[in-house]
Design a protein that fits this description.
It is a single chain. The chain is α/β, with parallel strands linked by helices. It has a single domain, classed as Rossmann fold. It has helices at about 35-40, 50-70, 90-105, 120-125, 135-140, 145-150, 170-175, 175-190, 205-210, 230-235, and strands at about 30, 80-85, 110-115, 150, 155-160, 190-195, 215-220, 245-255, 255-264. The protein has a 9-stranded mixed beta sheet with strand order 1-4-5-3-6-2-7-8-9. The two termini are about 25 Å apart. Its EC number is 2.7.10.2. Keywords: ATP-binding, Kinase, Nucleotide-binding, Transferase, Tyrosine-protein kinase. It holds the Pfam family AAA_31.
Length: about 260
């Protein structure tokens, strides 16, 4: 199963607002087409024991242990940012699949945040239209998370879109408003794991600013494509991060098969 970067292909865009289920606010409810995601090779609740589903079961376990280990002393330890050194390595694919896999857990809910504010793609990959989100909260004193968070047809999964683009994105992500927002997101629900899809580390300054405020960082590396020097340079920008994990993506371990290696 090939796992292209999500920027490389256009996907069918679904309607932002679906008919509400009982108890859902139609302004903040989206219906994800899970059958479509399964056809794309993504992890879904009813997709069976695919190779991707099994790989992300392995990947998520140490991340969950770190997120729930109070003795670690790490702030925001349930906030996990997924990034890469360069575009095209599959970080958005991994962020969505990781969120989908954790959403299958019985004891956790997941908030998936599109923090790649210059090139947001989470909603596009999920077949959804653009919506207000993270940048809008940071730019307005009147908006809060509850005003823009999107509930989905997966009860344990919610979405926070990137929102409008802004030329001062780095400064906004480094602001006190952002720090306070992350504390609120981290502490509001004790069972919540928050996954951030971040910009590439070597392409923008936003990625390292965002990573500095996370409890855990997952860096996606494209096998047989990303050089060792590129990986080292990207890791240098994460020196301040307490928990860094690497996913080796698109690596073939046997003819005709794909393997997603995990290194903690």
């Amino acid at each position: 199963m090939h796992t292209p970067d999500t920027h490389e292909h256009e996907h069918e865009r679904g309607a932002l607002l679906a008919e509400p289920e009982h108890g859902h606010d139609p302004r903040r409810y989206v219906d994800i087409n899970l059958a479509r995601l399964h056809q794309m090779g993504m992890v879904t609740h009813d997709g069976g024991r695919t190779s991707a589903a099994e790989d992300f079961r392995i990947i998520k376990r140490p991340l969950l242990r770190n997120a729930l280990h109070a003795a670690s002393g790490t702030a925001n330890r349930n906030l996990i940012v997924v990034t890469s050194a360069l575009p095209g390595e599959g970080k958005t694919y991994c962020a969505i699949n990781l969120a989908m896999s954790i959403a299958m857990e019985k004891d956790h809910t997941v908030l998936l945040v599109d923090a790649d504010v210059a090139r947001p793609s989470v909603l596009k990959v999920l077949g959804l239209g653009a919506a207000p989100g993270l940048m809008d909260i940071l730019l307005s004193e009147k908006l809060g998370v509850a005003d823009v968070i999107l509930k989905t047809n997966i009860d344990t999964l919610s979405l926070l879109p990137a929102g409008r683009n802004n030329k001062h994105a780095t400064e906004l992500l480094a602001s006190q408003t952002m720090s306070a927002l992350l504390v609120e997101i981290s502490n509001r629900y004790p069972d919540r794991i928050v996954i951030f899809d971040s910009p590439p580390l070597l392409l923008t300054t936003e990625a390292s600013v965002l990573a500095a405020q996370m409890g855990q960082v997952v860096m996606v590396i494209e096998a047989e494509a990303t050089t060792q020097g590129t990986v080292k340079e990207a890791l240098r920008r994460l020196d301040h991060c307490p928990h860094i994990s690497l996913i080796c993506n698109k690596a073939r371990s046997f003819p005709g098969g794909d393997y997603y290696g995990y290194y903690d």
